[in-house]
């Protein structure tokens, strides 16, 4: 194979969006992804499309793709028949509005050398697309089209590695240890199930205590009541566990913190959303919950403060995966047909990259509010998100510009590890005079 010959060739020539930008497709997208941003539900000229939908308007057969199709056929014929998207970088010049038609062209930017990955052996193919649009509903012509954004997309065409006999996250032996629940601590676990971190307070001397005990450490009284913690706290101490790593705890060193809650009691928990060496003593943290499997939900903490986005939990349901794939017009079987996905070496259907990209966009605008303008989203996929998982999104502000522009680092973590990491540039209107 002379794959190098494809570099720089056109990928899609003369692509035309099959549908005008329209309210029903926007609504389906927002419903599928749980995005309640009112900017996308507005009527008339105020309405804009979610920026992360950019690629969705270009999906479907349109334009000439002979070089790209030839490259895919050549890789298929050589045995690299599986495909997975790995990176997506979108830059948004302006929002798309209802009634506009998109036009798009793309090039094959690069084809990598053969790479060995955890999924298998194959080639990364990167394309770069320019998207323009004109207001067809208002009588504009294709020649009136102006730039909307660009979209760099990387896929891996690969031969699946031999499946491990016991895929991580499925094997019962790889589950986290179960808590011992008894009559003295049952109220604590009932609180966790209800999304609360409950501690005890003595009815006689008002001392707070945690972990749960039958009697008061301060006065010995056995009269107490439970209170729900506010969720604010600070790291009191921490360790990083390097070795040995039981399978359920992943393959990377992980931090365990002793968190002092605002109410004065301390709890041992994981801190998510920060690298182990970023977790410092005194760091403000905020309570969250992490689902490890169907039967185990544990309290965790996320870094908090003005530079941190509040955590967002997104259950990865079969419905979200399928509805997200459909809303982004991605009909690849691996996103809706579990039997087919297994023939491609995956244990089940998995979330498509456009849904992940949309969730990252939603996470950011949930925080900024509807007046913010997302200018770019660049993400890299890590481990897949399968049904039954739960993504924990966390984020931080890494740069603050003079003009209300923020650079954010975003991460979405599931049971198997980091599902998505990336950066988002957003301009917050009115953030500066
Ligand atoms: Zn007491």
Percent of residues in beta strands? Answer: 35-45%
Number of E-type strands: 19
- Written as H for each helix and E for each strand, in order along the chain, the element string is EHHEEEEEHEEEEEEEEEHHHEEEE
- Rg is 24 Å
Counting structural domains, the number is: 3
CATH topology group of the largest domain: Thiol Ester Dehydrase, Chain A
Structural class label: mainly beta
Biggest pleated-sheet summary: 11 strands, antiparallel
| Proper CATH architecture of the largest domain | Roll
Please tell me about this protein's structure.
The protein is mainly β. It is built from six helices and 19 strands. It has helices at 23-33, 66-77, 186-193, 318-327, 338-343, 353-368; strands at residues 10-16, 82-92, 100-111, 115-116, 120-135, 146-160, 198-202, 208-209, 224-228, 232-241, 254-261, 266-270, 284-293, 296-303, 308-316, 373-381, 389-400, 405-414, 417-427. The strands form three sheets. Strands 1, 2, 3, 4, 5, 6, 15, 16, 17, 18 and 19 form an eleven-stranded antiparallel sheet that branches. A hairpin with a 5-residue loop joins strand 7 and strand 8. The longest helix is centred in the last third of the chain and has 16 residues, at 353-368. The N and C termini lie far apart (57 Å). 34% of the residues are buried. Mean pLDDT is 90; it is low at 164-170.
In short:
This protein is mostly beta strands and 433 residues long. It has helices at residues 23-33, 66-77, 186-193, 318-327, 338-343, 353-368, and strands at residues 10-16, 82-92, 100-111, 115-116, 120-135, 146-160, 198-202, 208-209, 224-228, 232-241, 254-261, 266-270, 284-293, 296-303, 308-316, 373-381, 389-400, 405-414, 417-427. It is 15% helix and 39% strand.
């Amino acid at each position: 194979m002379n794959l190098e010959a494809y570099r720089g060739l056109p990928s899609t020539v003369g692509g035309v969006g099959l549908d005008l930008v329209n309210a029903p497709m926007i609504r389906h997208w927002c419903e599928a992804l749980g995005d309640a941003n009112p900017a996308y539900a507005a009527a008339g000229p105020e309405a804009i499309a979610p920026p992360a939908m950019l690629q969705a308007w270009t999906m479907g057969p349109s334009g000439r793709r002979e070089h790209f199709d030839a490259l895919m056929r050549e890789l298929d014929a050589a045995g690299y028949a599986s495909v997975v998207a790995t990176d997506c970088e979108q830059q948004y010049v302006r929002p798309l509005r209802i009634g506009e038609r998109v036009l798009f062209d793309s090039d094959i930017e690069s084809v990598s050398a053969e790479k060995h990955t955890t999924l298998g052996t194959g080639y990364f193919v990167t394309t770069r697309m320019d998207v323009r649009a004109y207001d067809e509903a208002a009588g504009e012509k294709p020649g009136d089209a102006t730039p909307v954004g660009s979209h760099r997309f990387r896929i891996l065409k690969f031969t699946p590695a031999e499946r491990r006999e016991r895929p991580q996250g499925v094997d019962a032996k790889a589950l986290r240890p179960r808590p011992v629940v008894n009559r003295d601590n049952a109220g604590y676990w009932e609180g966790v199930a209800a999304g609360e971190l409950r501690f005890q307070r003595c009815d006689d001397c008002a001392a707070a205590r945690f972990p749960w005990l039958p009697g008061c450490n301060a006065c010995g009284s056995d009269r107490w009541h439970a209170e729900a913690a506010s969720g604010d706290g600070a790291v009191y101490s921490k360790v990083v566990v390097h070795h040995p790593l039981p399978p359920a705890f992943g393959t990377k060193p992980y931090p365990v913190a002793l968190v002092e809650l605002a109410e004065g009691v301390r709890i041992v928990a994981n801190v998510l959303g920060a690298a182990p060496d970023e977790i410092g003593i005194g760091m403000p943290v905020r309570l969250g919950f992490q689902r490890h499997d169907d039967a185990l939900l544990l309290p965790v903490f996320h870094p908090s403060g003005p530079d941190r986005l509040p955590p967002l939990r997104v259950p990865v349901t079969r419905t979200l995966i399928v509805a997200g794939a459909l809303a982004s017009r991605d009909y690849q079987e691996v996103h809706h047909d579990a039997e087919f996905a297994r023939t491609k070496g995956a244990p089940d259907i998995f979330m498509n990259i456009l849904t992940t990209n949309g969730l990252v966009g939603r996470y950011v605008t949930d925080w900024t509010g509807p007046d913010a303008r997302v200018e770019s989203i660049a993400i890299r996929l890590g481990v897949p998100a399968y049904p039954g998982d739960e993504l924990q999104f966390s984020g931080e502000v890494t740069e603050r510009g003079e003009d209300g522009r923020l650079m954010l680092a975003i991460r979405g973590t599931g049971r198997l590890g980091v599902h998505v990491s990336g950066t988002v540039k957003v301009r917050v209107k009115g953030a500066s005079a």
